[in-house]
Design goal:
437 residues; Rossmann fold; six-stranded parallel β-sheet
């Protein structure tokens, strides 16, 4: 059993802290936001994530997890200190903004004493960050005993708890044996179940994280571009994806065409890797193209919507199903819906939105739209339906339902939610397949 401190109670910090507590460790989660800390003690989660609330409540009840704004107390009581603050993309350069990471490193340095500490970078950080954090602590406390480790996360929003407790791999970037031994003990409840643990140096660990996200982003853009070709050539992209996905070298995941990737990871991580590559004078052309094509993807989707509406958009009322960047999350960060719906608004389209979790943050992004409590409310009397997020409950809406509720039985599905055969009787546009009428 280890004493663990998680600095930052956002997506990564809270999920990781809760799961370490579930594994039997003592966890203190730290955040400057007093209201968030008070809410967490009451069982009120700042994010929507399956099973998270139940684990936090159980662990808090059993005194395995606690929440505080007192960073000094948390650091002094913990052997392992995780930095899990955000590393957003710098809006001017595209580089990862490390100001929050470095500020936390300075805070840690103020509170470390004589006991050995392992400072772990769980945040996604570029090459050289571990060394920079080490220098910050060393400068402030030359006699401090510590190691800086990189331990990237590979958590999918909507499945983060499951991913943490059932990992494909655990990557520990440690440059010394002492910190590696402690980290192995931390993850022993998982490695005892035969989940693989990789030991690398800190630089390699950082590269694994960025390379993983960038590869998946490229896979998404590949199937998106292929869907455009299939649509023009008369092929069915769903069958193409199924055919290539059954090749064990390729796999079926991330082969669903859509309006482009978004969220808190892929956009910023691809940009950060692109910037790192240029600094090392080793440009990654595939990543550069992926970023450019993903940005262009949203404009292609607007053209597709406009064509489906026969260019007659002004004054049309559109029922929008889903605005979060993906299903099973309330995260709106870099969601494709933001660019698409803002442009449709400028084109004079009236927007009626339903998203199972989107009402939490959606109104701040779409103040001009009306949010509804159900899909049926949003669809009733609309001129057409637009599907932007693949929430599984949308699959329960049938062609008969669309025909009954919509003024015109027109559905523009940018997530390929339905089989073509099931959409007969309405006008159904999807990606990389023929239009059903």
């Amino acid at each position: 059993m280890k004493n663990v401190c998680m600095i930052g109670t956002g997506y990564v910090g809270l999920v990781s802290g809760a799961c370490f507590a579930r594994l039997g460790h003592n966890v203190i989660c730290v955040d400057k936001n007093e209201e968030r800390i008070k809410n967490l003690k009451k069982g009120i989660m700042p994010i929507y994530e399956k099973d998270l609330k139940e684990i936090v409540e159980e662990s808090y009840k059993n005194s395995r997890i606690d929440f505080t704004c007192d960073l000094g107390r948390a650091v002094q009581k913990s052997e392992i200190i995780f930095i899990t603050v955000g590393t957003p993309a710098d809006k001017k350069t595209g580089d990862a903004d490390l100001s929050y990471v470095f500020a936390v490193a300075e805070d840690i340095a103020r509170h470390v004493k004589n006991e050995y500490k392992v400072v772990v970078l769980k945040s996604t950080v570029p090459i050289g960050t571990a060394e920079a954090v080490e220098d910050i602590i060393k400068k402030a406390k030359p006699k401090a005993k510590y190691s800086v480790v990189s331990n990237p996360e590979f958590l999918r929003e909507g499945f983060a708890v499951s991913d943490f407790l059932n990992p494909d791999r655990i990557v520990i970037g440690a440059n010394d044996e002492k910190s590696l031994k402690i980290m192995k003990e931390l993850y022993k409840p998982l490695t005892d179940k035969a989940y693989p643990l990789m030991h690398t140096n800190t630089t390699t660990a950082n590269m694994i994280k960025y390379a993983s996200n960038s590869f998946l982003a490229m896979k998404i853009m590949f199937i998106n571009e292929l869907s455009d070709m299939c649509e023009k050539a008369g092929a069915d992209v769903q069958d193409v994806a199924k055919g290539i996905g059954r090749d064990s070298r390729i796999g079926h995941k991330f082969l669903n065409p859509g309006p482009g990737f978004g969220g808190s990871c892929f956009p910023k991580d691809t940009m950060a890797l692109e910037r790192m590559a240029k600094k090392f004078n080793s440009p990654l052309k595939l990543v550069e193209t992926t970023i450019a094509e993903n940005n262009a993807r949203r404009f292609k989707m607007i053209s597709k919507i406009d064509a489906a509406l026969a260019g007659n958009t002004r004054g049309k009322r559109l029922a929008v199903l889903g605005v979060t960047f993906k299903a099973e999350t309330d995260d709106m960060r870099d969601s494709p819906s933001i660019g698409i719906l803002s442009e449709l608004h400028l084109m004079g389209v009236k927007l009626d939105i339903y998203d199972p979790q989107g009402k939490k943050h959606g109104p701040e992004f779409f103040p001009y739209a009306k949010f509804h409590e159900s899909a049926e409310e949003a669809l009733k009397g609309a001129d057409a339906a637009l599907i932007l997020t693949e929430w599984p409950q949308f699959k329960k809406i049938t062609a008969a339902d669309y025909k009954k509720l919509l003024k015109t039985p027109l559905v523009i599905d940018l997530r390929n939610m339905y089989n073509l055969a099931d959409m007969k009787g309405i006008i159904y546009h999807s990606l990389g397949r023929r239009t059903v009428k």
